[in-house]
Design goal:
This protein has about 375 residues and is of the alpha/beta class. The protein is built from 13 helices and 10 strands. It has a 4-stranded parallel sheet, with helices on both faces. Strands 1-2 form a two-stranded antiparallel sheet. It starts with a helix and ends in a 15-residue tail after the last helix.
Length: about 375
Amino acid sequence: MTRPLRTLYVALFIGVLSLLFAWSMRGVLSYQLPKQFSVIDGGLAKTFESHYDENFPVKTLGTSLWAGLDYLLFNEGRPGVLIGEHDWLFSNEEFKAEVDGPQQVRENLALIKGIRDQLAQHNVQLLMAVVPSKSRLYPEFVGDNTTSQLRQGLYQRFLDELHNAEISAPDLLSTLRKGKANTAMFLRTDTHWTPEGADLAAQQLSNSLTDGTLDGEPQRYITTPGVAKPYTGDLTRFLPLEPLFGYLLPPPDQLRRNQTQAAEQVIGDDALFGDSDMPVALVGTSYSANPAWNFAGALRQHLQRDLSNHAEDGQGPLIPMLKYLQSDEFKNAPPQLVIWEFPERYLPMASDLSDFDAQWLSALKQPNDNRHFAANARP
């Protein structure tokens, strides 16, 4: 190797190191001291190390490079997402086989029936909102991704079991199928439904109630549609293509954040319902908890009643319901109606119920009557 060529290589090497050093300094300069820290036990050093590791450029570049190769060569993302056609993304939870899935189905159904009985002891009616999987509503965009045998036809079998248990559960899938001819019912890059899909579901749930289910005078609510803005769905976090291959990411969805308010804002003692006597309680997952979909607002408008929202993000449908049953609010002032939003994909999935009393859970499951549900049946 000639001296000029060696000099060029050394200069290029030093240049690359200098660029990486300069880029790395962004991680140093962006660090902010925590409100509480300890220098003696190394707590401050640990927080700095964690922050710098998250912003280390070589790690970011390597992650982006491998994600780009997986995406370009194999049409794959990180575990958690399945890539469909026409920039549609799907949660792998809708497709995968669960360990001991049939047994878990029986366990969860037993809990659902026990919760029905627990509510009935307080003269509370249960209305189930079984949310169909996105892939079931949009099979035309699934591509080559295949669904496990247990999940095939799971939605209808879930409804059948609920009806056999005399639990009200309208067929939201049929309504959403009709609605998708006019507008998107689910977001293309997200797990969840659109505000339009949530509104149609709320309308059908309201229509399924018989007259006299809810006492009191109706209250009028008005929904104000938001302006459509770009929205990057939660499933894109499984595609860490930035900064090298960010241009390969599916284009963001367009989301309108609707807001629902009472037509006449009543203040003070003249309010129709206080915090302790809401006629309706909503329990569920992020389909209900996230205000971006305005599901709770849509329910208020169509039910013409206020409600308390006990849905939670990232907990599944069972844990929020069990927590609600043990809450002082339920024990002291049970509502007339509980709407339980329950995505179908969670039926074969296990939940960590270790925070609840095992004897109480066992009592909820008795009697364990699952004779009608054939977990391995084909659609």
